[in-house]
Amino acid sequence: MDDFGYINARIRAKKEKLLKRQEIEELLQAENFEKFVENLQKTEYSRDIERGEIDLEKVLRGINKNFSDTIKGIMEFSSGNPKELLYILLSRFVVANIRAIIRGKMRNIKPEDIETALFPVLELDEPKLKALLSKEETSEVLELLLTFRIPLPFVITSKLIKKVREKDIEFVENYLESSYYSYAFSKVKRGDGDKEFIRYMLNSWVDLKNIVGILLYLKYGISPLGKIELLPYGFLTENQRKALLKAQSLKEISEILFSTKYRELSKLITEGDIIGFEKRFEEVLSLWAIKGFLKDPLSIAIPLAYIISKYNEVVNLRIIAFGKYHGLETYEIRKEILLI
Fold first, then answer.
1. Distance of CA 84 to CAs 26, 88, 154, 195, Å?
2. With a threshold of 0.85, does the pTM exceed it?
3. C-alpha span between 109 and 231 (Å, rounded)
4. What single-letter DSSP state applies at residue 336?
5. Which among 283, 230, 233 has a CA at the least distance from the CA of 253?
6. How confident is the model at residue 2 (pLDDT cuts 50, 70, 90)?
7. Are 26 and 39 in contact (CB under 8 A)?
8. In which element (H, E) is residue 120 found?
9. How does 83-95 read in b/e, with b if 16+ C-beta sit within 10 Å?
10. Of 84, 88, 246, 320, which is least packed with CB atoms within 10 Å of its CB?
């Protein structure tokens, strides 16, 4: 049943529970971490964070759980084509979770610290993620993942396991990303407006990954040509991607992007502000998605707008929680949060 009317009515009801700008501002102005938690417990997040909790890890896990439960609820009352399209988008979190666990294991990060970066979604739920985190060796993560027999947006090949054992993080991350986008684009070949919405998000994410990947090499004076393999998707043409790879400076990258849809963002690159470019890129894309609330009420634009709004909310709460816990000034935290 493709009942966008029913699904989007439920989504609009959930939209009313998103934190308002004033509530975010009050959390941001909290005098310390304890006061931040106290204020957060007066909101929708109260059921996920125990009263009086002052442990940063537990607070972050509570914020993540709220997001995961929200997504689970949406998938439970969705069906048909809307559910399939949302599944394609949300599979990106599955890849992000696996990537975070593998990267964390390779860098000997404690499991509890890795866990704070995870968002259990779809079939890769919290018990399965905890089981993966419990593994000592990185290759054991993939071997256990195979036994779950759940759908994944990538294939676990012998080569992938070999590269994981060799701790070739660049290959592993590129393989996971490339596999996800191949999977996603194969599911949303050109078609109706709903598929085009999803394609817009996918193409934008690909461009962001390709551009930032090149910028990071150039930032350290390394030519990206031959060092990085760009994803063959996105709004940028093949010739534009080739030109980016051949660039020898941030100024050249900025000049190439000036003639694309990223013209307004290109000056941040000239100024060497790569973090600022990435943050502004994500803000612009999020704003585009959130405007979906004003579009066709019987389309994927509504759930997409809600999910992006909710994700931005939890990202902002995580940033504020981290900043308050470590005693950062309010103005320092404000610089890091999105869309306020």
1. 37, 6, 17, 11
2. yes
3. 28
4. T
5. 230
6. low
7. yes
8. none
9. bebbbbbbbbbbb
10. 246
